Amino acid sequence: MNEPAPQVIKMYAAREEIYPREIKGKYVSLRWLFVWLTQLVFYCTPWLQWNDRQAVLFDLGARKFYIFGIVLWPQDFIYLAALLIISAYLLFLATAVAGRVWCGFACPQTVYTEIFLWIERKFEGNRSARMALDKQPPSFKKFAKKTGKHLTWALLALWTGYTFVGYFTPIKVLGSEAFTLSFGPWEWFWVVFYAFATYGNAGWMREQVCKYMCPYARFQSSMFDKDTLIISYDKERGEPRAPISKSKQQTGNGSCIDCSLCVQVCPTGIDIRNGLQYECIGCASCVDACNSVMDKIGQPRGLVRYTTEHGLVNKYTPAQIRERTFRPRVRIYTAILGLIVCAAAASLYLRTPLKMDVIRDRGSMGREVEDGMIENVYRLQIMNTSERGHTYKIRVGGLDTLTQVTADQVVVAATETKAYPIRLRVAHGVGKPGSNKIDVELTAIDEPSLHVKEHAVFIVPR
């Protein structure tokens, strides 16, 4: 008896090349607006100057983050955590309101894919021309077009990698190093790595990143409900599908003429008429495509549109959909997000750009010096996080007769950390044997409101 042949189950479908068709419409224009805005911010920000330095610079070597007039240190990590929380919360809130609107309009993968597709069209032509070119046998013309496209992609990717590293190494310094090809090893690595990632993701993988690599596509549905705005096909109005006749549409058929234009413009190659799919990135290209067809055949727009599941079923008006979109759940989320933003902004505004740690010299315990006085030695670790240098006055207190032997003024330059040793003494018999609490206060002479006080202990020998 012959055994049945083993079945091979493929866990990954072979990729079929997708040739998105170019379309015009308000959502395409909106997406290009986001492309311009995001790339102007990304490419131009490192070149902005602030107080004779780069306006935005994450100097990992010096452990300082410069963001316009704000200088953050490792001790300010809480603000970075707050920024990440706010960003994540904004993404989740946007998803609850309008589905994958971030993916469709502002995600770097979408933005760079759109740019790379534009370059591809300039070299290879429209959708049908690109499909025909790929089917052609090798030729000089085909080689020239492909080579020009890939060289342009590579140059853009390298410029993107250079700009990315410019956020961590001063971009003017990076520019002089690029001119002489004298990058450091880490600079070479990150420029090439980021360029390779941009070239590979936007030029080759494209929709594969959204479908298989992005985790957001997998858990987005957990943030949807029946009042979330999604791109939907109005099946009741569109079915049954039938091509339009030369004279007029046949009676009894739906509005969908089965032109498949909504499929041709989709960057992930799905058919929105099959319902919501996790591959849909919410770019709304199919909405613009379908609306253009409806205009041509004299049908109302909106066969494919942004709407909600409740809106489709209950035939809500746009006003009713908006009212239910900003439902109590979303309003509560917005209020919580607003409170987090306000709290973080207030904390950042009210923070003192001066930090001090008082570290007692453990190698030199409390000791008796001349005149029978007791002396302790400390090191003040002073961090001036502002962009102005200051002279600070040191005051001590907490014990009677507590005096400072060393100079009571110290100069700390802008954005500098300085270790300053001080020696404190008290008269014999003052304080209890063992630990005694004392205070060390630091005040800027030219700006008295800039001050900080820390506690320490003074050791009296037993």
UniProtKB/TrEMBL annotation:
<keyword id="KW-0004">4Fe-4S</keyword>
<dbReference type="InterPro" id="IPR051684">
    <property type="entry name" value="Electron_Trans/Redox"/>
</dbReference>
<keyword id="KW-0812">Transmembrane</keyword>
<dbReference type="GO" id="GO:0051539">
    <property type="term" value="F:4 iron, 4 sulfur cluster binding"/>
</dbReference>
<keyword id="KW-1133">Transmembrane helix</keyword>
<dbReference type="InterPro" id="IPR017896">
    <property type="entry name" value="4Fe4S_Fe-S-bd"/>
</dbReference>
<keyword id="KW-0472">Membrane</keyword>
<feature type="domain" description="4Fe-4S ferredoxin-type">
    <location>
        <begin position="247"/>
        <end position="275"/>
    </location>
</feature>
<feature type="transmembrane region" description="Helical">
    <location>
        <begin position="77"/>
        <end position="98"/>
    </location>
</feature>
<feature type="transmembrane region" description="Helical">
    <location>
        <begin position="30"/>
        <end position="50"/>
    </location>
</feature>
<dbReference type="InterPro" id="IPR014116">
    <property type="entry name" value="Cyt_c_oxidase_cbb3_FixG"/>
</dbReference>
<keyword id="KW-0813">Transport</keyword>
<feature type="transmembrane region" description="Helical">
    <location>
        <begin position="151"/>
        <end position="168"/>
    </location>
</feature>
<feature type="transmembrane region" description="Helical">
    <location>
        <begin position="330"/>
        <end position="350"/>
    </location>
</feature>
<keyword id="KW-0408">Iron</keyword>
<dbReference type="Pfam" id="PF13746">
    <property type="entry name" value="Fer4_18"/>
</dbReference>
<feature type="transmembrane region" description="Helical">
    <location>
        <begin position="188"/>
        <end position="205"/>
    </location>
</feature>
<dbReference type="Pfam" id="PF11614">
    <property type="entry name" value="FixG_C"/>
</dbReference>
<dbReference type="GO" id="GO:0005886">
    <property type="term" value="C:plasma membrane"/>
</dbReference>
<protein>
    <submittedName>
        <fullName>Cytochrome c oxidase accessory protein CcoG</fullName>
    </submittedName>
</protein>
<keyword id="KW-0411">Iron-sulfur</keyword>
<dbReference type="InterPro" id="IPR032879">
    <property type="entry name" value="FixG_C"/>
</dbReference>
<dbReference type="Pfam" id="PF12801">
    <property type="entry name" value="Fer4_5"/>
</dbReference>
<dbReference type="InterPro" id="IPR013783">
    <property type="entry name" value="Ig-like_fold"/>
</dbReference>
<dbReference type="InterPro" id="IPR017900">
    <property type="entry name" value="4Fe4S_Fe_S_CS"/>
</dbReference>
<keyword id="KW-0249">Electron transport</keyword>
<keyword id="KW-0479">Metal-binding</keyword>
<dbReference type="GO" id="GO:0046872">
    <property type="term" value="F:metal ion binding"/>
</dbReference>
